[in-house]
Amino acid sequence: MQDWTTDMVEDRLKEASSVMRKLPAPRIQGFFNTWPSMMVEFSDLVGQTPEHMRLPPPSAAAISRMEAAMTWLSWLEPEDVKFVWARAEGARWKEICWKFGIARSTASLRWAYCLNLITWRLNRRPLSSRWSRRYLLERAKILSSNF
Question: Which residue in 37, 75, 88, 138 is a FRET match for 129, CA 20 to 30 A apart?
Answer without folding.
Answer: 88
